[in-house]
Automatic annotation (TrEMBL):
PROSITE patterns per record: CYTC (PS51007)
Protein name: Cytochrome c4
Molecular function terms, GO-annotated: electron transfer activity; heme binding; metal ion binding
Keywords: Electron transport, Heme, Iron, Metal-binding, Signal, Transport
Length: 193
């Protein structure tokens, strides 16, 4: 009896589990992203963020938000609405399979890092949480735009909407400049070489 229940539960768990993701298939999907984000996720245009080495769950969540319309952007809304759920899982697995590391700008003092941000986004901008993105070496334009979008309510998140609500333009600029100055290195997974 116990065995039967365990088997039945096992079956349910399997049926309910997320579909498997395939990073190699994701690499093919990334062909659609490379002009803006690079094949390794190091952005090629200043308004696009670096996405290589971001947590997979963060990438899936953002692509799903663009697809469903809860996050909007003229380029990404079009891109994401053309992706299937499987392609979202796969392309996120591809970019997440890279490793992102960051160093502070030459001469930067770690004590000057924004104390309201480091617990989640790190001193040099490598995320400390699976749900938060890296900020290292994003352009100050990108960081500025996102913080103002959270402040305005155009982009919503339980944590960041609250954080951004109280920021002044000068603080936004200072935080954006701090993280934009970091040096980011994205390393491809070994099997991709
Ligand atoms: C034409 C350029 C372009 C293409 C092609 C493109 N993107 Fe983007 N992507 C952008 C821009 C610009 C943003 C910033 C959107 C914003 O300001 O909210 C962005 C944002 C994102 C984000 C949010 C990252 C973050 O840190 O919040 C993800 C994830 C993403 N893109 C994934 C992809 C994937 C995967 C593809 C390919 C299937 C792709 N993009 C194709 C320009 C592009
Ligand atoms: C308690 C954790 C936490 C703190 C503190 C925090 N953040 Fe965030 N941040 C997040 C999470 C989670 C997200 C992802 C939001 C989403 O899913 O849309 C995020 C997203 C962002 C983004 C969007 C980046 C992108 O790639 O699109 C920026 C910019 C940002 N945070 C800047 C800051 C700054 C500047 C501070 C300090 C003033 C700060 N955050 C403090 C958790 C945090």
């Amino acid at each position: 009896m116990r065995v039967a229940i365990a088997l039945a539960l096992g079956g349910l768990l399997l049926a309910g589990a997320a579909p498997a993701q395939d990073a190699q298939n994701g690499r093919k999907v990334a062909g659609m992203c490379r002009t803006c984000h690079g094949l390794d996720g190091y952005a090629k245009i200043p308004i696009a963020p670096h996405i290589g080495g971001e947590p997979q769950s963060y990438l899936v969540e953002q692509l799903t938000a663009f697809k469903s319309g809860t996050r909007q952007h003229e380029m990404m809304t079009v891109v994401a609405s053309g992706l299937s759920e499987q392609q979202i899982l796969d392309v996120s697995a591809w970019y997440a399979s890279h490793t992102a590391t960051a160093e502070l700008a030459v001469g930067a003092n770690p004590e000057d890092a924004p104390q309201d941000c480091v617990a989640c986004h790190g001193t040099a901008g490598i995320s400390e949480l699976d749900t938060a993105p890296n900020l290292a070496a994003e352009t100050n334009i990108y960081i500025d735009t996102q913080l103002k979008a959270f402040r305005l309510g155009k982009r919503k998140n339980e944590i960041m909407s609250g954080v951004a609500a109280d920021l002044t333009d000068a603080e936004i600029r200072a935080y954006a400049d701090w993280y934009a100055a970091s040096k980011l290195t994205i390393t491809a997974p070994v099997e991709a070489n």
